[in-house]
Amino acid sequence: MLPYGRQNVTDADIEAVTAALRSDWLTTGPKVDLFENDLTRIAGAPCVSVSNGTAALHTAYAAAGIGAGDEVITTPMTFWATAGTATTLGATVVFADVEEDTANLDPYAVEAAVTPRTRAIAAVDYAGHPAEYDELRKIADSADATLIADAAHAIGSTYRGRPVGTLADLTTFSFFPTKNLTTAEGGAVASTDPALLERARIFRTVGLVRDPAVLRRTDEGPWFYEVQELGLNYRLPDVLCALGSSQLRRLGDFKARRAALSARYDEFLADVPGLRLPVTRDHVDPMRHLYPVRIQGGRRREVFERMRAAGIGVQVNYIPVYWHPLYEDLGYQRGMCPNAEAFYAEQLSLPLFYDLTDADQDRVIETLRTILES
Ligand SMILES: *Cc1c(COP(=O)(O)O)cnc(C)c1O
């Protein structure tokens, strides 16, 4: 089965991991700092590595002080962790609808969803296409809310010339194998606000505080540390950070290949009937994580099944988050975000990854064309 996404691992990656395994450090050594510095050069903001993208979201919400009684506005067109980690902290998630074309959080819908209890707005850069951060920033500032970017799809993307990583107060990344680069499991939180990033660092380091300037008791001894707020062990080990730094050297190549494959899909699928292709706004330069098409005429399920039967691992991204029984049982009702539901009903992700060959892509295109023309 041709997958919809997969990692690219080279001998150089394997050597980097082997060297880390032979070193004195398996976790929380020099490779962590190196990887975080490498990430900072891409994201444009200082970064803290964490153990996965879900942990990155949990850490970002914790750093923003999100808890019971707070409302977090987010999109239903995402992997459910964007909402679920806020729910875990006791917050109430408020789903705002997405834009009809990009499937990104609609600033107008966000504005309408703001209440005095809004504490955070969490956008997702769906498929790698940045959300409308200038508009979201205005709304977040006037609501006195923290702006969070779930950029699990979008490391390396830019918006109005600025890198994803600098657009929100806190930005989260995932390095799961299907994403734009991988550390097997892994993630990061970026922020240009030193206080927020320090809170994130403490949260992912089991809440441990050692800085004498902030200790409550300063005269205990050199071994002393304090836990002042809850934290978890969300550290990313040296071994995986070594893989991450090695992968990041190829991020430009990954982006170029994803762009070239997307351009081929754009060109060769343009005239296929019953198909809508993804849009790219003029002011963004996306790292294309997914190639999401829309299958019209109620044929999405048929096309999904026939593509799979032909050995092409298409995927659906995503089930509207509030459809999950977890949220249904909390009282969320179907129909509340019609654009997201209409998008979901037609959505299909075609294979897109660095090692996808032109020949394999041609087979995807021809199979899809044959199904839709019949
Ligand atoms: C993958 C993903 C996550 C979760 O990342 P993991 O590393 O799998 O925990 C969160 N949000 C979005 C939008 C994702 O695609």
Automatic annotation (TrEMBL):
Keywords assigned by UniProt, alphabetized: Pyridoxal phosphate
GO MF term (any one): transaminase activity
Modified residues (N6-(pyridoxal phosphate)lysine): K179
Catalytic site positions: K179 (proton acceptor)
UniProt xrefs under Gene3D superfamilies: Aspartate Aminotransferase, domain 1 (3.90.1150.10), Type I PLP-dependent aspartate aminotransferase-like (Major domain) (3.40.640.10)
Cofactor field: pyridoxal 5'-phosphate
InterPro entries to which the protein is assigned, alphabetical: DegT/StrS_aminotransferase, PyrdxlP-dep_Trfase, PyrdxlP-dep_Trfase_major, PyrdxlP-dep_Trfase_small
Pfam families (alphabetical): DegT_DnrJ_EryC1 (PF01041)
Gene Ontology BP annotations: polysaccharide biosynthetic process
Assigned protein family: Belongs to the DegT/DnrJ/EryC1 family.
Protein name, UniProt field: UDP-4-amino-4, 6-dideoxy-N-acetyl-beta-L-altrosami ne transaminase
